[in-house]
């Protein structure tokens, strides 16, 4: 642990964007400036700004008026500086270290998801004072109970499902809605439950079409006019089609019931953060500045049982926080007749 007093700090946002990034930048920046008298710069376009030495000075007035704004004022990218290192290409990590020192930085705040935390850990191993802040709509960063972006995406997905109920009912159709989540089904599970989905399919749970169709037929036979299927994009399906299209075709073929699909896509990542995400991102940001002041580096800020804490970056690298097959919400859902497509495996 390095306890040198930080004076000048850099912030970057990397990976896919999500609502709440600006709230986090503001939380770090304002606390650093107002409480600790630090200087703050923001690197543009994720790790690419750090490699190219492209940055903006962030003064307190630049940080006003951004709390409610979606996306990131700094821009983002999925640039991975350590990608070529195992083949002997060390240029990008070397440039980063050089730029960090030339800019007189005492600490670097990396706001991002799993990929960003992995890179942040590598930079910490290279000797930089790094602190991570977890964000992603997917809510799958290991080491914390929740990431900001998730609540906003959940609200958007739930509203979409609410709207599908009325059109599904009018036409007596099966409606499939595909939400984001390649590896983790948090959005599908939570939005599926909040939106009253009849069938919820998650990447973490094996499913088969027979179980899905049987559930739809049972509902049809018991005079339930329509069915809502909420599916995460990452469930097993042929690569050449979307999860929703694959299911729609199979359901219509096997049940003969008219079926339609909606892929929600990037709408889930856009727009203003919910109040919960604004608060979470602000708490994370302010706490990251406190950690810098204390010299607590090589860590990611996290929430455990609603308490702010830090987790060593080295513990997070390469792990994902997935939905447990016996998650309490899944257990409750099953008891209410919700299908997870695995009854006849
Ligand atoms: O941010 C996570 C995520 O939203 C995933 O759920 C999604 O599959 C992925 O990003 C797609 O992002 P992009 O097209 O920006 O790489």
Structure description:
With 345 residues, the chain is an alpha/beta fold. The protein has two domains: 3-149 and 273-304, Rossmann fold; 151-269 and 325-335, Rossmann fold (3-Layer(aba) Sandwich), CATH 3.40.50. Helix content is 39%, strand content 17%. The chain has helices spanning 21-35, 47-52, 91-102, 114-125, 150-171, 186-194, 209-221, 243-255, 275-294, 313-316, 328-335, and strands at 8-13, 39-43, 55-58, 107-112, 130-134, 174-179, 199-201, 227-232, 259-263, 299-304, 307-312. The longest helix has 22 residues, at 150-171. The protein is elongated. 6-O-phosphono-beta-D-fructofuranose binds at residues 16, 136-138, 180-182, 233, 269. Residues 16, 136-138, 180-182, 233, 269 line the site of 6-O-phosphono-beta-D-fructofuranose (F6P).
Summed up:
The chain has 345 residues and is of the alpha/beta class. The chain has helices at residues 21-35, 47-52, 91-102, 114-125, 150-171, 186-194, 209-221, 243-255, 275-294, 313-316, 328-335; strands spanning 8-13, 39-43, 55-58, 107-112, 130-134, 174-179, 199-201, 227-232, 259-263, 299-304, 307-312. The radius of gyration is 22 Å and the shape is elongated.
| Beta content | 15-25%
User: Percentage of helical residues?
Assistant: 25-40%
Based on helices, strands and strand pairing, what is the structural class? alpha/beta
The unique ligands bound to this protein are:
6-O-phosphono-beta-D-fructofuranose
* Low confidence ranges: none
Q: CATH fold name of the largest domain, please?
A: Rossmann fold
With strands numbered from the N-terminus, the spatial order across the biggest sheet is 3-2-1-4-5-10-11
Compute the CA-based radius of gyration.
22 Å
User: What's the architecture of the largest domain in CATH terms?
Assistant: 3-Layer(aba) Sandwich
CATH class of the largest domain: Alpha Beta
Report mean pLDDT, rounded to a whole number. Answer: 96
Structure summary, number of beta strands: 11
Question: Tell me, what's the shape?
Answer: elongated
Query: What is the string of SSEs from the N terminus onward?
Result: EHEHEHEHEHEHEHEHEHEEHH
Number of domains: 2
Number of helices: 11
The description of the largest β-sheet is:
7 strands, mixed
Distance between the termini: 50 Å
């Amino acid at each position: 642990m390095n306890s040198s007093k930080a004076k000048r700090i850099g912030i970057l946002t990397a990976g896919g964007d999500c609502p709440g990034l600006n709230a986090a930048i503001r939380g770090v920046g304002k606390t650093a400036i107002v409480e600790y008298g630090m200087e703050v710069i923001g690197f543009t376009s994720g790790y690419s700004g750090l490699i190219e030495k492209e940055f903006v000075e962030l003064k307190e007035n630049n940080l006003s008026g951004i709390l409610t704004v979606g996306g990131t004022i700094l821009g983002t990218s999925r640039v991975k500086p350590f990608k070529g290192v195992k083949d002997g290409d060390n240029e990008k990590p070397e440039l980063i270290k050089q730029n960090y020192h030339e800019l007189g930085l005492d600490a670097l705040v990396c706001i991002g998801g799993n990929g960003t935390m992995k890179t942040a850990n590598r930079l910490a191993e290279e000797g930089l004072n790094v602190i991570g802040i977890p964000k992603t709509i997917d809510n799958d960063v290991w080491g914390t109970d929740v990431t900001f972006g998730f609540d906003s995406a959940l609200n958007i997905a739930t509203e979409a499902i609410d709207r599908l109920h009325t059109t599904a009912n009018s036409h007596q159709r099966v409606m499939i809605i595909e939400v984001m989540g390649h590896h983790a089904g948090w959005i599908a599970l939570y939005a599926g439950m909040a939106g009253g989905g009849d069938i919820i399919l998650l990447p973490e749970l094996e499913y088969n079409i027979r179980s899905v169709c049987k559930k739809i037929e049972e509902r049809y036979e018991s005079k339930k006019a329509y069915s809502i299927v909420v599916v995460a994009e990452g469930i097993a399906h042929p690569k050449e089609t979307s999860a929703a299209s694959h299911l729609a075709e199979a359901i219509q073929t096997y049940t003969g019931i008219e079926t339609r699909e909606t892929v929600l896509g990037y709408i889930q990542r856009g727009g203003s953060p919910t109040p919960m995400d604004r608060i979470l991102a602000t708490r994370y940001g302010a706490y990251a500045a406190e950690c810098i002041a204390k010299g607590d580096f090589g860590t990611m800020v996290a929430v455990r049982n609603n308490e702010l804490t830090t987790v060593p970056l080295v513990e997070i690298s390469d792990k994902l926080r997935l939905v447990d097959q016996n998650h309490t919400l899944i257990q409750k859902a099953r008891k209410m007749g919700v299908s997870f497509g695995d009854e006849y495996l």
